[in-house]
Amino acid sequence: MRSLLGVLEVLNGLTYTAESAHRVFVARALKIEVRELKPQLLADYLTFFDKAFSDFPEWAECYCGFYDTPGTDWDASPESGPEHRAARSELIRNGKAHGLLAYIDGKPVGWCNAQPRASFVNMRSYRVAVTDPEEPVGSIMCFLVSPEHRSKGVSTTLLNVACDMFKRDGLQIAEGYPTTNPTKGSGGLPWAEANYKGPLNLFLKNGFRIHKQLERFAIVRRQL
Ligand SMILES: CC(C)(COP(=O)(O)OP(=O)(O)OC[C@H]1O[C@@H](n2cnc3c(N)ncnc32)[C@H](O)[C@@H]1OP(=O)(O)O)[C@@H](O)C(=O)NCCC(=O)NCCS
Predict the structure, then answer these.
(1) Span 31-42, mean pLDDT?
(2) Which atom of ligand 1 is nearest to the CA of 150?
(3) What is the reported pLDDT for 16?
């Protein structure tokens, strides 16, 4: 259905634009720009996360800090939102939060938590993927796209730019963790939320192969 015409330009290091079009449903090409998270993008990050859970407020508190918070606890109550927002802001201000923001018409519409696997503070249950800590692996931990911009190729663009970023940084393997058994993982969630790690098909269509199948998710890999 979709033709990703490719990464067309490299601007300011890791600012990319890609042209994406649904051949059938959307007449005009959609320009998706991807920027690497830096302290100066903090306001965009917050603007995006403040609204991106409009269809699923149950997760609105997260601010994608789950994998960069030490310990085993995580307060997922709605009241914890301001606390997680403040903690995440502090990390971003200090250049300690990593990932990619996607923009359409200058507005942030998508996020991919992508960084060297070794730099995650807390991989939680995905730590099982780390059989050799020395492997030069970049991890694609999760995605979030604004509800009104889903199914337009935003995650596809983010995934491919993440791979380019990993390669630029000397990593040799890109790794993702798509849920493959929702009843054991995200049972009862709507499709979009059950696939917050990125749908398996997204990875398979973009050069990833199943490296290891676990009970509720697969470890998928692409050589860079
Ligand atoms: C899952 C999600 C990331 C997909 O992002 P997206 O930008 O819509 O994905 P894309 O348009 O790039 O599509 C990529 C692939 O995913 C699959 N896909 C996308 N939307 C789909 C849908 N509604 N049904 C089935 N498959 C779908 C397809 O395989 C698609 O590839 P194709 O179009 O070539 O067939 C998005 O739905 C989302 O943000 N969900 C919420 C995630 C969330 O809650 N994150 C926060 C965690 S705290």
Answers:
(1) 97
(2) 8
(3) 67
Distance between CA atoms of residues 37 and 96, nearest Å: 10
- For 75-94, what is each residue's pLDDT tens digit? 999 999 999 999 999 999 99
pLDDT (mean) for 143-163: 97
Which protein residues touch ligand 1 with a CB less than 6 Å away?
1-2, 56, 59, 62, 142-145, 150-156, 191-193, 195-196, 199, 201-202, 205
pLDDT digits (tens, 9 = 90+) for 176-216: 999 998 777 677 899 999 999 999 999 999 999 999 999 99
Give percent of the chain with pLDDT exceeding 90.
82
Each as own residue / partner, the long-range contacts of residues 218-221 (CB below 8 Å, 24 or more positions apart, any chain) are 218/177, 218/178, 218/180, 219/129, 219/175, 219/176, 219/177, 220/175, 220/176, 220/177, 220/178, 221/173, 221/174, 221/175, 221/176
Tell me the domains of the chain and their CATH numbers: 2-223 (3.40.630.30)
Which residue of 195, 204, 205 sits with most ligand 1 atoms within 8 Å of its CB, as the best mutation to test the pocket?
195
The pair of three-digit structure tokens given for residue 181, joined into one six-digit string: 């058994």
Under a CB-based contact definition with an 8 Å cutoff, are residues 140 and 198 in contact? Answer: yes
Q: What is d(CA 34, CA 10) in angstroms, rounded to the nearest whole number?
A: 10
